[in-house]
Known about the structure:
Layout: E1 3-6, E2 9-12, E3 15-18, H1 26-172, H2 180-219, H3 235-238, H4 242-246, E4 259-263, H5 269-280, E5 285-291, E6 298-303, H6 309-314, E7 319-325, E8 341-347
Parallel strand pairs: 4-8
Antiparallel strand pairs: 1-2, 2-3, 4-6, 5-6, 7-8
Helix pairs in contact: 1-2
Amino acid sequence: xxxxxxxxxxxxxxxxxxxxxxxxxxxxxxxxxxxxxxxxxxxxxxxxxxxxxxxxxxxxxxxxxxxxxxxxxxxxxxxxxxxxxxxxxxxxxxxxxxxxxxxxxxxxxxxxxxxxxxxxxxxxxxxxxxxxxxxxxxxxxxxxxxxxxxxxxxxxxxxxxxxxxxxxxxxxxxxxxxxxxxxxxxxxxxxxxxxxxxxxxxxxxxxxxxxxxxxxxxxxxxxxxxxxxxxxxxxxxxxxxxxxxxxxxxxxxxxxxxxxxxxxxxxxxxxxxxxxxxxxxxxxxxxxxxxxxxxxxxxxxxxxxxxxxxxxxxxxxxxxxxxxxxxxxxxxxxxxxxxxxxxxxxxxxxxxxxxxx
Length: 357
């Protein structure tokens, strides 16, 4: 506070006061003091108001921060929920789209597969029939060639046997008055001729049997092949029967088949050939013939003498199931009838309804 003195005036705090004899003017001082008090009160009121505003601002800021955090948390949760919902909806749409595409692809694939299967079903019988015919023709030609060869050998053997028999008969008809040396020679030759005939003929027959067996193993049996010569008994056990040899080619031509063996599916040609080869080796069997059918081929069995075919079939390793079918036309005591006796078999390796009976 500066006091600036002028004549009769004093300045205090920027305010001039008149000088009096005893000091400043009391009235003016009182007014000044009242103004100061008023300014103080205004300042105090303003300060209180400012403090209230500051407190309100602080409270507002805290509440705003709290509300902002709450809104942020709620917004985050809502965003997460919406995101999960969107993801679920997207996954569901993707799944439905994938299923729809998969169904479309399967439908197209099924249509193509059905078309291919239909085409294959149309072509399969023709291809199978063509392949079957080709195989049968090749087998038939091979077996016929082998059989013709065996027939030629048999005819040659018959001619040799007839020549040997003629020579033997000629030597046996020599006059009795020949010299003892000639007679002795004739007797020796006469005794040796039948033995030589037996030996040569038996050897030839055995060779033919071996060749026939080899041809059967290599080529198999044909459904309409020509009948083979029946087996000739070993001459060491039964001796040689020339008349039986000369008539062997006619054995398969006599009578009707006594048995028809029906083969249940599935069909295996290798096992069928094993069954046929086994039956052909039996002395009671004259010959066999295969009747080709797509589902169930049959084997016709021509017997030379009566036998139990069911037992014979049960002993074959390639046969897993045997059943004799009873028919009205079957005669008793195994006698031949107009219709052959029927037997059903299942081949080994197949699933059969029951085991061998």
